[in-house]
Amino acid sequence: MSAIEALSETVALSHRLLYRTGLATTRGHTSARIEGTETFIIKPWPHIQMHRVQAADLIVMDFDGNIVGATRKITRVSEWPIHAEIYRARPEIGSIVHTHQRWATMLGIAGRSILPVVGADLAAPVAEAVPVLDEDKSLIRSVEQGKLVARRMANAPALHLQNHGMVFAAPNVETATLDALQIEYQAEMTWRALLIGDPATIPPLDLRAAVEARAAGVVPEAWESYWKWVDRHPEALHRRTADI
Ligand SMILES: [Zn+2]
Predict the structure, then answer these.
(1) Domain encompassing residue 69
(2) What are the start-end ranges of the H helices in the chain?
(3) How many domains does the chain have?
(4) Ligand 1: distance of its center to the CA of 126 in Å?
């Protein structure tokens, strides 16, 4: 298997994990930069149930939105500029995930920060407040909107698209996918803690090692359990939330 084929397998797996963990059903997409090129692997339309996504379903696009090497009739994913413009702006980013996941999106709507509240290794992607894009609430379909997303996100691991969803960017597919999962968990726990009191947060010093490992592209140990148990044995996980 070539490196690109292996990367495609991981991108496909990311979609299945987002589905199994309740972060997406048909909408949402994971992409991966093909190293050394201005192209990336992404899932095209039509939106199929994400637990069905396989490597053969994916396409390659360039940063201008052209489909590369298509052998069948396909339509590019509508929000491709999110991916292209973040890759263009941030050479260190190897993968991007976009979802409309429930709890994280809800805190963005409410204008409340997702706090680092559970587990230093889990909370690393929210060690800093997640920035918010609040001046454009429509789908990100134009290059101009994509550039706005990249500007608002700056060097952050995640971005709220207020009244829309979330964007995650990381050195690799595994980290970007786990960021989406872990941030959803931190968001849900932040919200529940806010309902009953003043949430205590994990101090920055306790988060530092995990923050540095994440930025360096170290694949979290949790990845193995997700692909082994959630993808191969979906009955082991009860989906918790989203139908979006
Ligand atoms: Zn969207």
Answers:
(1) 3-234
(2) 3-20, 80-89, 102-110, 120-123, 143-153, 173-196, 204-215, 222-225
(3) 1
(4) 21
